[in-house]
Amino acid sequence: MKALHQYRQIFAILTPPKKALLLLAVLLLIENAVALVIPWLAGQFTKLLLDRPTAPPPFSYQQILLVWFVLLTVQGLFVYLNRSLAGATTERMLARLRTRLYDHLQSLPLAFYHGRKQGEILSLLSNDAAILSSFLTVSLVPLVPHIVIALSSLGCILLISPQIAALAGLLIPIFYLTTKILGRGIRPLTRQYITQYADTFSIAQENLTTLPIIKSFTREDVESRRFQDSNTELARLSARYLQHQARLTPLVKLISMAIILFILWIVSDDIASGQLRTGDIVSLILYGMLLTQPVSRLADMYGQTQRALTAAERLVSVFSAEAEQYAGGKPLPPVRGEIRFAGVAFSYPGNTELFTHLDFTINAGETVAITGANGAGKSTIAHLLMRFAAPDKGTISIDGHDIADVRLDSLRSQIGLVQQQVLLVNSSVMDNILFGRYQADDASVIRAARASHALSFIEALPHGFDTLIGDQGVKLSGGQKQRLSLARALIKDPAILILDEATAMFDPEGEESFVKDNRELFANRTVILITHRPASLELADRILHLENGRLTPLEPIR
Questions:
Q1: Residue 335: its pLDDT value, please?
Q2: Is the dihedral of CA 484, 489, 492, 494 positive or negative?
């Protein structure tokens, strides 16, 4: 029952194209139906060749050979059609599954990623998705035609010799159970392999992301050994899996041939007495081989099924994670920007409460600075306001609207966030600014760049706004990246602007100029400044100090 439930989950995740799978099954049936005729033809040819009937045969040697050639040609054509359709269907399903998985991953709250490695997530998109889509078209869909061909072969044997058919029917279940027993160690091995695959590529992804740190601390040898050890373990598990499969396949073939030889031994007296003619014996042997082929393929399928179930378990765990409800709630109308936290309590999983009863109000159009020690929860306030996380208790409202009841897109579209950790895309300067509002015109881009004090350095770049900045803006300095991030937020023209240490990378002259030029910009919106820098604090109408989960007012700097 558990396996059946997992199969249902696989189908629910894959959303396979039913028409393509049905056509694939029909083509497989035709291919196998053609294969059923060939043993009969071989028997007829043998009868003509060895038994030398006294009456004129209905078919000549030439006719049988011609039909045989035509059938082989037709079989080859259907093999080609099956492989082509299976490959195209697999790739189509894989693309659809990856898109669906990516969309779901993108919709999950940020808390989902806090305890997971990025390489593990990338492994789901690459390895696990490919295993599942390939399993359905290569292993599961051919299962029905394989069963049909096995039963048909058994029926053909029954027409020739009921005794042999009865023996074969009794031995097939024994054959299947033997196969299952021989392959029972594959499931835990595949689980280890898939987990190790994710760990190995997590190390690679993490190291390539933090390469500047690795080089600065000369850890190349250490990290190389760490990746090599993980990769070696992956290769070892892969080799063990292949060894299992390599051992299973010849054993299954040996058992299947032993069954055929055993049946022939049982009926050897009938053969010796002439009750079974030579042509019938040839047909029986070929039908026996045809019968054991689908059953022997169950051995390969058993290992593939275990891999698919393991991949399905990982994917199901991700798809079962609750996504953010973008479409839920009422649209938040254009706001003035009054923010109120009322009795807010919050704690990160596994940690003590950060806030127990946080109360404060920021008036519309007010600039408020929040200071405090590292870890006090300053950035958490911004994350709660953006609904990156939800409070354990209490309410957060904007202009009297509880943000828990509004559509996420209508909330976040009216808030501009500049984080201390600058995140940029590997594209042009223009694309990074337009990331904040992709339909903005050139004039808006220039205004945002000027307001963030990024225009001067952008114009000095080799290709201006069209300059490519590299992965995470590697071609820019820290201050330039922060200015670009600020321009991206300002182009939204948000009613609420959150600057989380946004001037941390500015030099004193740049920060002084930023403060001087942006008083007017800030006057038209609600601004939350998370900062320790005195120059930035001068922009604030009020300063609040966060300590032990409570905000206390400080004197503004003038």
A1: 92
A2: negative
